[in-house]
Amino acid sequence: MRHGRINGFMKKVQQEDYIIQNLGECAIQSPVIVNDFTPDSKRLLLKQYLDYSNTGKNKDEKVKREIPLSVEVAGPREKIFFDPSKTKAAIVTCGGLCPGINDVIRAIVMQLYHRYGVRNIIGIKYGFQGLIPSYGHEIVELTPESVENIHREGGSILSSSRGQQNIGEMVDALSRMNVNIFFCIGGDGTMRAAERITEEITRRKLSISLIGIPKTIDNDLNFVQKTFGFDTAIAESENAISCAHVEAKGAPMGIGLVKIMGRLSGQIAVGAALAQNDVNFVLIPEVPFDLEGENGLFKALEKRLIRRKHCVILVAEGAGQELMRTNNTPQETDASGNIRLLDIGYFLKVRIEDYFKKAGIQINLKYIDPSYMIRSVRASASDSIYCSALGQYAVHAGMAGKTGMLVGLLKDEYVHLPIRVVTSGKQIDPEGNLWMRVLESTGQPPSLLNKPLDPPVEEHVVI
Ligand SMILES: Nc1ncnc2c1ncn2[C@@H]1O[C@H](COP(=O)(O)OP(=O)(O)O)[C@@H](O)[C@H]1O
Ligand SMILES: O=P(O)(O)OC[C@H]1O[C@](O)(COP(=O)(O)O)[C@@H](O)[C@@H]1O
Ligand SMILES: [Mg+2]
């Protein structure tokens, strides 16, 4: 039996209260096409916590061996590790820009200063470069006054960079500057670097806590329900899609083609398509497609145009890369080692125009690429709320002496995740409900392939 607070009164809540009424027996087969139907017997456990505080010695051993799969819940700890009056904290922002970075910096500084009384807070400029003396970047002092208004602007007041730096030299700098808590705001690349920095700190037996905060519009960190900036990026892409829809309807046989960021995952494209129901085809890296052939994109597009006279296509920048590559195409990477993508947007524009020209059908294709405009803006209200929570929880974790971890949302709960589990990359499951909802809302065919793919060998991690 549990207790719930209803209208200010405590009420006993029992399992019976959660039984859903049914009008009667369901005897008719549903016309909805999905891979898995949801049985009534599938239930969500309501806020189950596990408290193992009374287990005596070897608690960590107990967590490893006896406690079911679970993660540490974030929040202020009764006892802390660092003495606030002697604590020095450093903040770095790495990788691509993302709405909300300044909100997180502000929240960390305010929380350290006002809740814990930490007076020594520094900012590392231009990502990990700022820890390497030869770059000559200045170290900036961060105070409540200096960060007071920064959340009103996009970008990062500390700036950012890509490119690997020497791990040993970075730890030398942290140690030389007497940093006790190192806050790393970044995406998958930053977390890979953070993991290596933590290993080096541990190897040197230094008492430096490293806390990650999940930044990236791509939303591709494993186990993290949502990275900050993702919601804003979706909201910003709406404008481009609306314009594409207007343009498509504004001319005979109009096609609005929009390319949206998303390197290895189509999370932004999927979110934007579901937020903006004008999209008719969503193309993402996780779901391969053919151009030609009876089931390919061109034929599906042609059928749609004949039927409805206009069409909106939303393509994630990482989609269809295999269609453009030959064995001789060089695989280029950026300074951080991320694969440089070929331009699927322009490629599709040219190929679609070519197809319809050959078919003798006159179309009007308008191509829109909002590019960096979806990530250099300030955070939306919901992202700002998320950013302040992440900043606050990151400080609680750092002051408690936790390290090699990241704060994030998982199943609507703020939790501590070991950095090593988040870097393997999160993708959209083509068999999952999210993609099914995209297919339902766009009406695009379940597959744009002429030949079905071989079944995947690896199992997906289900959380
Ligand atoms: N395996 C790694 N070892 C050390 N540094 C890394 C590693 N992977 C990425 N980095 C560094 O982390 C920083 C951020 O990575 P990047 O991929 O650019 O952005 P993001 O963190 O947003 O994914 C860059 O300076 C990059 O070089
Ligand atoms: O800023 P760059 O180097 O042009 O990179 C663009 C890439 O950065 C992103 O905006 C975000 O990537 P990260 O968060 O991993 O840095 C991607 O969507 C996009 O592919
Ligand atoms: Mg990344």
Automatic annotation (TrEMBL):
<protein>
    <recommendedName>
        <fullName>ATP-dependent 6-phosphofructokinase</fullName>
        <ecNumber>2.7.1.11</ecNumber>
    </recommendedName>
</protein>
<keyword id="KW-0963">Cytoplasm</keyword>
<feature type="binding site">
    <location>
        <begin position="372"/>
        <end position="375"/>
    </location>
    <ligand>
        <name>substrate</name>
    </ligand>
</feature>
<dbReference type="InterPro" id="IPR012004">
    <property type="entry name" value="PyroP-dep_PFK_TP0108"/>
</dbReference>
<dbReference type="GO" id="GO:0006002">
    <property type="term" value="P:fructose 6-phosphate metabolic process"/>
</dbReference>
<dbReference type="GO" id="GO:0046872">
    <property type="term" value="F:metal ion binding"/>
</dbReference>
<feature type="binding site">
    <location>
        <begin position="162"/>
        <end position="163"/>
    </location>
    <ligand>
        <name>ATP</name>
    </ligand>
</feature>
<dbReference type="InterPro" id="IPR000023">
    <property type="entry name" value="Phosphofructokinase_dom"/>
</dbReference>
<dbReference type="InterPro" id="IPR022953">
    <property type="entry name" value="ATP_PFK"/>
</dbReference>
<feature type="binding site">
    <location>
        <begin position="187"/>
        <end position="190"/>
    </location>
    <ligand>
        <name>ATP</name>
    </ligand>
</feature>
<feature type="site" description="Important for substrate specificity; cannot use PPi as phosphoryl donor">
    <location>
        <position position="189"/>
    </location>
</feature>
<comment type="subunit">
    <text>Homodimer.</text>
</comment>
<comment type="function">
    <text>Catalyzes the phosphorylation of D-fructose 6-phosphate, the first committing step of glycolysis. Uses inorganic phosphate (PPi) as phosphoryl donor instead of ATP like common ATP-dependent phosphofructokinases (ATP-PFKs), which renders the reaction reversible, and can thus function both in glycolysis and gluconeogenesis. Consistently, PPi-PFK can replace the enzymes of both the forward (ATP-PFK) and reverse (fructose-bisphosphatase (FBPase)) reactions.</text>
</comment>
<dbReference type="Pfam" id="PF00365">
    <property type="entry name" value="PFK"/>
</dbReference>
<dbReference type="InterPro" id="IPR050929">
    <property type="entry name" value="PFKA"/>
</dbReference>
<feature type="binding site">
    <location>
        <position position="96"/>
    </location>
    <ligand>
        <name>ATP</name>
    </ligand>
</feature>
<feature type="binding site">
    <location>
        <begin position="261"/>
        <end position="263"/>
    </location>
    <ligand>
        <name>substrate</name>
    </ligand>
</feature>
<dbReference type="GO" id="GO:0047334">
    <property type="term" value="F:diphosphate-fructose-6-phosphate 1-phosphotransferase activity"/>
</dbReference>
<keyword id="KW-0808">Transferase</keyword>
<comment type="pathway">
    <text>Carbohydrate degradation; glycolysis; D-glyceraldehyde 3-phosphate and glycerone phosphate from D-glucose: step 3/4.</text>
</comment>
<keyword id="KW-0067">ATP-binding</keyword>
<dbReference type="GO" id="GO:0005737">
    <property type="term" value="C:cytoplasm"/>
</dbReference>
<dbReference type="InterPro" id="IPR035966">
    <property type="entry name" value="PKF_sf"/>
</dbReference>
<feature type="binding site">
    <location>
        <begin position="216"/>
        <end position="218"/>
    </location>
    <ligand>
        <name>substrate</name>
    </ligand>
</feature>
<keyword id="KW-0547">Nucleotide-binding</keyword>
<feature type="active site" description="Proton acceptor">
    <location>
        <position position="218"/>
    </location>
</feature>
<keyword id="KW-0418">Kinase</keyword>
<comment type="similarity">
    <text>Belongs to the phosphofructokinase type A (PFKA) family. PPi-dependent PFK group II subfamily. Atypical ATP-dependent clade 'X' sub-subfamily.</text>
</comment>
<keyword id="KW-0460">Magnesium</keyword>
<feature type="domain" description="Phosphofructokinase">
    <location>
        <begin position="89"/>
        <end position="397"/>
    </location>
</feature>
<keyword id="KW-0324">Glycolysis</keyword>
<dbReference type="GO" id="GO:0003872">
    <property type="term" value="F:6-phosphofructokinase activity"/>
</dbReference>
<keyword id="KW-0479">Metal-binding</keyword>
<feature type="binding site">
    <location>
        <position position="188"/>
    </location>
    <ligand>
        <name>Mg(2+)</name>
    </ligand>
</feature>
<feature type="binding site">
    <location>
        <position position="317"/>
    </location>
    <ligand>
        <name>substrate</name>
    </ligand>
</feature>
<dbReference type="GO" id="GO:0005524">
    <property type="term" value="F:ATP binding"/>
</dbReference>
<comment type="function">
    <text>Catalyzes the phosphorylation of D-fructose 6-phosphate to fructose 1,6-bisphosphate by ATP, the first committing step of glycolysis.</text>
</comment>
